[in-house]
Specification:
This protein is mostly helical. The protein contains 16 helices and 2 strands. It is globular, with a radius of gyration of 26 Å.
């Protein structure tokens, strides 16, 4: 799926009256204004513009690619005066107001991307300030300010806090930290979904295992972000035990994901009335979570499955999907430029603004092409001119001698 935190988006639909998550958004049509050239992807950004832009920039950064300045400027320009981000503001000259639907997920993702790139402290500091101001009393965050805390939103905010040098355990509301909120959303080690994270409690307070939320919860409990690299191991193979600490909750969640992935190497998406289908996006997220936890064997196995099967999904889904695969490759040490025969970096870059030549090597290569390429190279032209000049000089000199008496 295009928007990683689909459960959070669906929960927000009831709050903000949105019709559908970004994965179902229509392609541009003649009736809708053209999208900014600096934006990655061509689908309607109403629900995921900032999210997919942030993932694209993060993915490029992990691969050592400097994103175009225009793409970064577009992202920073989406920020509201209070520090929050909406999914998409078509007219940034118009100030955000009560009708602007900002959310924690877009804001936290933007923070993670801009913090990784560096040089945007004013933007990220203001965004973190807003996130702190909308923290819930249980220590967590909902998709929108004031919404019930959920695992996905709380975890992506933890990643933003850590990316800017904050200590998530010390960011508290009424004495509760984000880790307290996550621990309250973990399932016990007995029964269905043992060790998993729930997205949110049900109407009666019941907790139901959710693979998407579990992948997010593992990262959040580790204090890691969306672009987490491989972890150091430790409790990767530990048995499920009472989640009395964030570390144990992460280990329990990793064990649940490992079991869920064991049969086919991937997660499935079950829709009412439809057959189970491979869930490529959540599988990629699970790979990142397992690698960060230190469960490298299963992470690599599932990354290998993605290499063989996910190219078509990414091509259909767009930049966020390519970014998820790049982040999975980064977490497991795979080459994103040769991921199952696909250059993910090239494909992602092609969905956004033209890259800028920023390195000395690229400039040198360009100069080399100018000098040695076909046609009139610079030094070839200079040489011809010098030779011609010498010939003309001899010609005039000869004529002068003939005219002497």
């Amino acid at each position: 799926m295009i928007v990683r935190r689909s459960a959070a988006v669906l929960a927000a639909v009831a709050v903000i009256g949105a019709a559908a998550p970004a994965a179902a958004a229509p392609s541009p049509s003649p009736s809708r204004p053209a999208l900014p050239s600096a934006l990655y992807g061509e689908s309607d950004p109403q629900y995921d513009g900032v999210w997919r832009q942030s993932l694209a920039l993060l993915a490029q950064h992990t691969a050592g690619v400097a994103p175009p300045k225009a793409a970064v400027d577009w992202l920073t320009g989406q920020q509201c005066a209070d520090g929050s981000f909406a999914p998409y503001r078509a007219d940034t000259a118009k100030a955000c107001d009560a009708t602007t639907t900002v959310d924690t997920n877009q804001t936290a993702a933007a923070v993670q991307a801009l913090a990784a790139l560096g040089g945007h402290d004013a933007v990220t500091d203001k965004a973190v300030g807003w996130l702190k101001s909308v923290q819930n009393k249980d220590g967590g965050w909902g998709y929108v300010a004031g919404g019930a805390s959920d695992t996905n939103s709380t975890s992506v905010v933890i990643g933003a806090l850590a990316a800017t040098g904050e200590k998530p355990a010390e960011v508290k509301k009424d004495g509760k930290s984000p880790y307290d909120a996550l621990l309250g959303l973990t399932l016990p080690c007995k029964g269905d979904g043992a060790g998993a994270f729930a997205f949110q409690p049900g109407k009666k307070g019941e907790l139901t295992a959710n693979a998407d939320a579990t992948a997010a919860g593992v990262l959040g409990s580790l204090g890691a972000g969306l672009a987490a690299g491989p972890g150091k191991g430790g409790q990767a193979d530990a048995a499920c035990a009472e989640a009395d600490s964030p570390e144990q909750a992460a280990a329990n969640g990793a064990a649940y994901l490992t079991d869920a992935l064991a049969e086919g190497g991937h997660l499935v998406s079950a829709l009412p009335g439809a057959e189970d289908q491979p869930d490529y996006g959540n599988t990629a997220d699970a790979v990142v979570a397992l690698a960060a936890q230190g469960s490298t064997e299963q992470a690599r196995t599932s990354a290998a499955w993605l290499e063989k099967n996910a190219a078509g999904w990414a091509a259909q889904s767009g930049p966020a999907a390519y970014a998820q695969l790049i982040l999975a490759a980064h977490a497991t040490g795979a080459d994103p430029r040769a991921f199952g025969g696909t250059d993910l970096i090239e494909r992602l870059t092609a969905t956004g603004p033209a890259p800028e030549k920023t390195t000395a090597t690229e400039k040198a290569d360009e100069e080399k092409k100018d000098d040695s390429g076909p046609g009139f190279g610079v030094w070839w032209f200079v040489g011809v001119c010098l030779i011609a000049g010498i010939g003309i000089g001899f010609l005039f000199s000869g004529r002068a001698k003939k005219r002497q008496p």
